[in-house]
Each structure stands twice: as structure tokens, then as C-alpha cells.
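We emphasize that the prediction below concerns an isolated chain of 314 residues; any contacts that depend on oligomerization or on bound cofactors are therefore not represented. The input was used exactly as deposited, without trimming of termini.
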Amino acid sequence: MGIDLEEWPGDRANADYDWDTHVLTVSPWEGGTFTAQFVAVGRTAGASGADERSSTGTLTIVVPEPVDPVVSWAQTPAASTTSTSARFTVNVDPGEFTLGYVVDLPPGAQSASPVEVQGNTFEVTGLAVGRHTVGVSVQRGAGTSWLEYTWEVVGSAPVLAADAIPAATIRAGISRGASGESVAIIQRVVGTPADGRFGAATRAAVVAFQRAHGLVADGIVGPLTWAAIVSVANGGTGIAPVTATSIPAAQIARGISRGASGPSVAIVQRIVGADADGRFGPRTQAAVRAWQKAHGLVADGIVGRLTWAAMVAR
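Result of the prediction step, given as a C-alpha cell string:
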């Protein structure tokens, strides 16, 4: 037993009939009235093998037009403020909904993946001085409403505060797979779309940022990378000056040599002109030897007290 759809508005809705369960599923793409002509097809016991067809029937489905949720701003920042953080609350009429926001849509872009929010309140931090626009989409079923708000950050307040991301989060390290506003803050500085999702493109941008600023290029935003991000966001170079205490004295006393790894190696690599990947391999060893030779030191490829003193004094 089954049915054949003889007439169906396929440009307005999709219909799928399951011959095993005899369930007809209709998926309209819009509201309105849908009318279909159908014929039941079956085979009775003792039939000669030919299908028996019923007369033509009519199926009418009425789908309500989607209703956009009613939304309005309940809380926004002042039109002109020195704060680099902005808190927003959206009023939404009763019912389940999904809310997402986009900050400063790039020029010429028609859309961007919104940062989804639990509830109806969210906060944007790490904003630069200048004009900003936030767009909020609220979706309920097939209905969607959109809000926009534009304001300006003025004055000499820091563009990005060191506590814009909680210290505990930074200590744990923010890496691929993370999501949320902390990721969006990082993305705005390293130059990827601020969608709040730490994927492959964001990791590549973080690695490039780390290499450009003499950090271990591991794609993880920990304390050192975060300090550089804050520095760059506030107009600095992102590269901390090298001092005698940049590398622990005990480590210098033991000597930093081939096989070592970590931030201390990245500092040495930056000084000798090697790729600052934080791994003391043969290329770094060769660069250290060349640097030692050029500075009248024993070219043993080991960064001990004398080599480090020369590096700090350079």
C-alpha cells in the first residue's frame, strides 16, 4: 500500500513518503496553504499482480506564516563611553529562542557566523577606541528578528585590559576547540573573524602571531602569548625587552643547549635570529655558535653565563 503524488507544489515544500511505514512527511519552506493531488496504490490478495489505484484524492495543508519574535534593547552601553567593555541585554517575548551576536561586521561582508549566547545577556570586551556596531539575531522557529546598536569608545582607557580574560583561563591555556568571548577577544587581535570558535584558522593565526613576537609557536594562548596580545592591542610591540632575569639564573648556570625547549629557548632564538619555535635543534645550535663567534666567545653552541651576559648587554 502506498500513494503517488500527482500534483505537488515542489517549489514551496518538500514531500517524502516512506513505503515501509506509510508515513508522508511534508516540510514546507514557507507559510501558506498547500494542496496536493494523490492516488492510493495497492495490491490485494489474489490480484493478478497489477497495482490497483484509487480515485484521485486531495490533501490540503495549512501552515501558519512564521512569526518573528518581538525584541528590543533592555540594556546597552552609553552612546559615548571610555569603557572597553560593553554589556547588552535583549528583551524577547515569551517562548524558546536562540540568540547570537556579531560585533563590527567587516566592510562589504553580508553576514558572519554569530557568537551564540545562553540567555539574553552578553558582554563584549577588549574593544578598541573608535566606533563599534553590534548586531543581534533572535530566532524562534522560522522567524528571525534583528537588532543593531552603534556606540563609540573614547578617551585614553586601555584598549584591552590584562584581566579581559580571567587569569585562571589564561594559565590553563586557550587552544583549538575552545569557544566563547575569550576566543573572540584573541581573534580580534590576531586578525581572524571573531566568531568565538578556536578552529584551524585561529590556531594558524595564533602561531603566526607567536612567531612574529618571539614566542613559542605552539598555537596555545598562555600567559606569555596573552601578555603580548594585550601589548599589541594597546599599541605596543608585543615583544618584551630582554633583561638579565628574562631567563632564570639556575637555567643559565646549567647552560641552555641542544635538546632544550620552552620560552627560554624562544628568547635565545629571537636574539640569534633563529625561528622562535622554542625548540633547541641543530639550526638553533648553529645560530648560537655563529652568534658566539661573532661576539668573540667560545663557539660551543651552549648559552651559559658568559654568552647570556653578552646577549643581555647587546
